[in-house]
Design brief:
CATH superfamily: ph1033 like domains
Largest sheet: 6 strands, mixed
Number of strands: 6
Strand content: 25-35%
CATH class: Alpha Beta
CATH architecture: Roll
Distance between the termini: 29 Å
Length: 152
């Protein structure tokens, strides 16, 4: 089992409510992006931390590996800059009763960030990009803080 971090932006509501994540295969000049390629690496049973508005808002379980799918129509104007051809992954999301701000445990989190392709930059903000692998130790720290945060 692996852990993932998705940086939802304009499409978070559609993806959370629809039970999926979606990424284009190519950018506007025909190149792939590593954070989109990660869609092909997720496996059924993997866990995903859903971040939007700079906080972890949901935790999800991957229910189906990536499959070809066109950009969701409900993205509307939010998805116009992306290629229509993409990957979709089915996810069951559970919304946290209290969103988790990773900055409150930054001193513990920073040393656990991946050296390459971290979901968070060293300015404490979610990195530009969509889907990132999370090391086990980082996932354990996040889960621990989710538990503490939900009790508060």
């Amino acid at each position: 089992m692996k852990y993932w971090w998705v940086n939802h932006n304009k499409t978070w509501k559609h993806e959370i409510e629809g039970g999926y994540i979606w990424a284009p295969k190519l950018d506007s000049i025909g190149r792939t992006q590593y954070h989109w390629e990660n869609m092909k690496r997720v496996k059924k049973g993997d866990i995903i931390f859903s971040c939007y508005s700079s906080k972890i808002q949901c935790v999800g379980t991957i229910m189906r590996e990536a499959y070809d799918d066109l950009r969701p129509g409900d993205f509307g104007d939010a998805g116009e800059a992306w290629d229509r051809d993409g990957w979709k992954v089915d996810v069951v999301f559970k919304e946290l009763s209290a969103p988790l701000d990773h900055r409150i445990f930054w001193d513990e989190l920073e040393p656990l960030l991946p050296e390459k392709y971290s979901p968070i930059n060293y300015n404490k903000h979610p990195r530009e990009g969509y889907l990132f692998e999370v090391p086990d130790a980082m996932a354990a720290l996040i889960f621990g803080n989710i538990i503490i945060n939900q009790r508060s």
